[in-house]
Amino acid sequence: MLKMRLISMIATVAAFLAAPDMAGAGVAPSEDKAVAPIVRKGSVPVNGIDYYYEIRGEGEPLLLLHGGLGQIEMFAPVMPVFADHRQVIAVDLQGHGRTPLGKRPIDLAAIGADLAILVKQLGYDKLDVFGYSFGGGVALNMAANAPDRVRRLVILSAPYAQNGFFPEMLPQQAAVGAGMAEMMKDTPMFLTYKAVAPDVSEFPKLLDAMGALMREPKVYSDAVARLTMPVMLIYGDADMIRPEHMIDFYHKLGGGLRDAGWMRENMSKNRLAILPDLTHYETFASPLMANVAMTFLDGGGKAPNWAEQVGK
């Protein structure tokens, strides 16, 4: 009973449940034939962290950031949508996947600052950024601190403050630590980590570092206020984020404050999507989510208004 309760707890707070084809016995997920092949990969050292990256596809660049206890492969189900007409730069974040933990704490602002340097070193002056959950917090901080490098931003299933989570989540998050490592040996989180991590013995340390991050009552209102680019927030209607917080986040971006007007004259440049029948642990693998995100990132999505339909 204790083992099942601990596994359930870590699964809840990890913001990462692998797709069925990822849950193999300790092997890395195979490449989907429909996914654009990797054209470049490697590691870039930034502020003491050797970040692993993979680049796929061609077109306007898009930085893709995974969720907590995940890695690049968690986007395998939707990578064909992202890489269809974009050059996707996917990164394993600090302590995750092939990127070692290093000697510093995991901090969203610090990782965000690292990624602004990383994309510059890879040759990108400006690009779109997509981040899920933990990666969404990193994306928020990257865009706030280096707005000149981010053209458009999508934040998926992430709050701007700790109180954005349902209150029952907070003690579960606070309990995350190395003591759970042994109980997780058969979970997708550990198996996919084990398949690619340079030092599997760091997994308990990663749990400690993520637990320390989640215990901090951080609020990133100042970061939200510094976002100058178009932003889209995407959530599932059964997400771990409170619906009130989703709306509050959108309000802070200037959206949802008044009617847009007949000719969209009061329309905010920012967007909010709450997608049906999706939990926090499914949004990142949803084709609906990926298509909604890409429509925004491509600058599309406007439907014809009534006057346009009748040719007036």
TrEMBL record:
Q: Where is the AB hydrolase-1 domain?
A: 61-173
Leader peptide range in chain numbering = 1-23
Keywords annotated in UniProt: Hydrolase, Signal
Q: SUPFAM superfamilies, from UniProt?
A: alpha/beta-Hydrolases (SSF53474)
Single annotated GO MF: hydrolase activity
Supply the InterPro entries for this chain: AB_hydrolase_1, AB_hydrolase_fold, AB_hydrolase_sf
Name the record gives this protein: Alpha/beta fold hydrolase
Query: What organism does the record attribute this protein to?
Result: Rhizobium redzepovicii
